[in-house]
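Recap for those who missed Tuesday's class. We walked through two folding examples back to back. For each one, the amino acid string is listed first and its predicted structure tokens come directly after. Nothing is annotated here on purpose, so try labeling regions yourself before you check the end of the notes.
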Amino acid sequence: MVTKIIADSAADLTADHINGVPFVSVPLTMEIDGKRWVDDDELNLPAFLAALKATHQQAISSCPNIKDWLNAFTGGDEIYVVTITSKLSGSYNAANQAAANYLEDHPDANIHVFDSASTSSQMQLILEYIAELVNQDCPFDEIVAKTEDYLKQSKLLFSLKELDNLANNGRVKPAIAKLAKLLGLYMIGTAADGEFQLLAKVRSEKRSQRALLKEMIASGYKGGKVRINHVQATAAANNLQKLILEQYPGAKVVIGPCRGLCSFYAENGGLMVGFEK
């Protein structure tokens, strides 16, 4: 039996295995000034970010299509899929349609599509959790049930320095984006019911890191796993890691880069923080 864990590229992962379990990333795409950028492991991220910064036109993103998902499913008997929030992308619906098509030709296969109601580092935690259960030889239905519960026990927070693309794509009000740029504000937010929700505005990078930790604790964080993904903000990610470890020395905090889609929306200086409650 072949087990596969699959996610769209909003999960910010490029490895071909998660703790030994085969993993496939299905890329989203972005378009800037008529040029198509594919969010795979060949994406030139610095060039992409430079193009994003230079454009005066609305840049757009597109989810994987049914064929993309079907290609990822090929050869799998037990398939676990995690997508970016369905409230902001068609990725979840496309994956479900692909799953239905795949099961018509492979009726003995098992597929479950999880709507992460989130993105980036929280998706990573979900994928790692699925891999842990697979490695424990848990049956398919048990993995599905436990993972659905885990979705409620993990959370995403973010700190954003630039909001241009979120505003251009209708994710935040343009007035908020202009105010943030004018005053040099960092926006602290979360994924609430699958949509981005702003929680606080702070005036400096260091205050934004303290605000993130404060919000983590208020949300129920007690020292569990943390995944910090960033957009060209290594120092900020390291400082947040330091703050977390000062208060929770046993916490497992891993830092990594955002890929194309999350960089598209988080932009330069952005932090995406997934954690266990």
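Example two. Treat it independently of the first, because the proteins are unrelated.
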Amino acid sequence: MSSTAPEGRQWQGTTYGNGWMHSSLVKVIKVLGLRLLYIFPLLFVVPVVFVVNPAKRHIYRLMRRRLGYGVVKAVRKTYLNYCYFSKAVLDKFAMYAGKTFKLEIDGYVHFLDVAEKPEGFVQLSAHLGNYEIAGYTLVARHKKFNAVVFAGEKGSVMASRSKMFKDTNVSMIPAGQGSDYIFEISSALDRGETVSIAADRVNGTPRTVTCDFLGAPAKFPAGPFSVAAMRSLDVIYVSVLKTSIRKYKVSVVPLPYDKEAPRARQVEQLCRAYAARLEEEVRKNPCQWYNYFDFWA
């Protein structure tokens, strides 16, 4: 989860602040807890960012054009989106501080079904809710979990993640501008491991798939769907949505596709299944989809 909301199509993917700020925040959370810390950004940070950040118009357009809200409701929902985002960032650092969250898992049987197979599988997510908080909970003891993360993330955040995963079956695959990470993903799947990828950010990739999403054509990255189709692997969609201060709801849904179809057709089917599921959840929880660029550009 990134804590920037830059202007334009390209998603920068880095958490705001420097190493000192991040380490200080972790220490403060250990002392004060989350309930008190939520107050500061809600009273002082969110109002300022909401006024000065031009990226808010993309959320507003989502509320108005795609979800059909009236002007007042669209403005209110846009503001709430920033509020939820500030909580998501604090929750991420609370996890680095050793805090835990109560999870309600819906569809866990679907995860067990694919995890018990000897083959690897692909776990798709989105910048919806707070996947980093609870997504790593779905880890099979006998199957290594590989999370594809943005290689340009701040060093302090990557260090916190590494420390958190030190004694677990979770590892990170940094995805940058080079192609080495593609081979790492391929090797992990060949070994029968799990690979988790967010599939709602194009980030300049030349290979995209166009699917209908919230009533208009939108481009999705072809890569996450291709790595599964290339090996005819199972694919599940996992979302993690905030329901209260210390509680999240995890949903697991299998994404079906014809594994005997031509590869291009498989990729298209997976993209449509993913887009349909993401659309369903965005309609129900628009304030928790952190899409700060023109998704339909």
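Answers for example two:
The longest helix spans residues 71-96.
The longest strand covers residues 234-244.
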